[in-house]
Amino acid sequence: QVQLVESGGGLVQAGGSLRLSCAASGRTFSSYAMGWFRQAPGKEREFVASISRSGGSSAHADSVKGRFTISRDNAKNTVYLQMNSLKPEDAAVYYCAAAETLSRISVIGSRGQYAYWGQGTQVTVSS
To answer: Which of 35, 57, 58, 103 has the maximal Cβ count within 10 Å?
Structure first.
C-alpha cells in the first residue's frame, strides 16, 4: 500500500500560480504511475495529469495543457503539479492518486485504474 498526502492548495488570483505537492509513504514510490485529478462542486472528478513511473512520460488534460505541468522526484517520494495562469474554472479540490503498474513508461488517464488516493487539497481562484 501507499499513503498519499497533498499540500500546496490555497487561494490565488486569476492569472496566478500554485504548486501542489503529494508526498507518498509506504511501498516503493517508483512502483506507481501517479496522477492528479480534480473535483469541483456538483461535478464529476476529472483527470488533470498523469506521469509514468520513471517520470519520462506525462499527459495532461486539454483544459490544462500549456498551463499545468506534472513532475515527480522519486528520490523524495513526491509528485508535483505546477499550475500557472490559473483561471476561476480551475477551482476545485485536487487529488493525487497512485496506480501500480509494471510499465515504467506508461501514463494512466483512467480514474478507475488508480487504487490509492490522497485526501485532497482545495484550490480557489478569484476573478
So the answer is: 35
